[in-house]
Design a protein that fits this description.
The complex is a heterodimer of chains A (about 120) and B (about 110). With about 120 residues, chain A is mainly β. Chain A contains no helices and 11 strands. Chain A is globular. Classes of the chains: A mainly beta (about 120), B mainly beta (about 110). At the A-B interface, strand 4, strand 5, strand 9 and strand 10 of A face strand 4, strand 5, strand 9 and strand 10 of B.
């Protein structure tokens, strides 16, 4: 089946620094990738939809200047948390849609990245 | 507003019991519904996907049903095992151009040996 990887799996950073998280589709080309955030004991909330070669679409309440998304190729999307603060500490999960398999709206999820901002 | 709710929020059962997890959604015009499993600190594992035209899907000891008209889905787990302990999430995708998955609140399941 389709595999999506994320790197790093966990990261600790100081407040005010920027952190980049990568999401890769390993065996398929993903025209669309999604970024979710999950706070402790809460469900996943969609942050933004990333389309290859175009600007990301952000959900209401998500600051696009703080969470920079770049979908530079059909297998890679990156999420950069700029000037991170402790309240940004969360579990970030990406997913990718394989347009050739699993139905037109099936998403494959990465293993997640745990971000802790000190 | 499109919302997905799961009850119960947490459930503890002894090993071997059959159990049902519930999911309800406010807007019945869904494209499909998916059930996921999430282990602590991990990503999501897709369990079952039900298209809007389907009534149920089965995989091993899992059976998911869908009633669009009432905005409900259930996940039935037969003969539960300690390894089934995890958080179970349901998520819906609506029709149209969007591919957004709207997740439910989750049910934390603990199966006691």
């Amino acid at each position: 089946g389709a595999v999506v990887s994320q790197h790093p799996s966990w990261v600790i950073c100081k407040s005010g620094t920027s952190v980049k998280i990568e999401c890769r589709s390993l065996d398929f080309q993903a025209t669309t990738m999604f970024w979710y955030r999950q706070f402790p004991k809460q469900s996943l909330m969609l942050m933004a939809t990333s389309n290859e070669g175009s600007k990301a679409t952000y959900e209401q309440g998500v600051e696009k200047d703080k969470f920079l998304i770049n979908h530079a190729s059909l297998t890679l999307s990156t999420l950069t948390v700029t000037s991170a603060h402790p309240e940004d500490s969360s579990f970030y999960i990406c997913s990718a849609r394989d347009p050739l398999a699993g139905g037109p709206r099936t998403q494959y999820f990465g293993p997640g990245t745990r971000l802790t901002v000190l | 507003k499109q919302e997905v709710t799961q009850i119960p929020a947490a459930l503890s059962v002894p090993e071997g019991e059959n159990l049902v997890l519930n999911c309800s959604f406010t807007d019945s015009a869904i494209y499909n519904l998916q059930w996921f499993r999430q282990d602590p600190g991990k990503g999501l594992t897709s369990l079952l996907l039900i298209q809007s035209s389907q009534r149920e899907q089965t995989s091993g000891r899992l059976n998911a049903s869908l009633d669009k008209s009432s905005g409900r889905s259930t996940l039935y787990i037969a003969a539960s095992q300690p390894g089934d302990s995890a958080t179970y999430l349901c998520a819906v995708i609506y029709g149209g151009a969007t591919n957004k998955l709207i997740f439910g609140t989750g049910t934390l399941l603990a199966v006691q040996p």
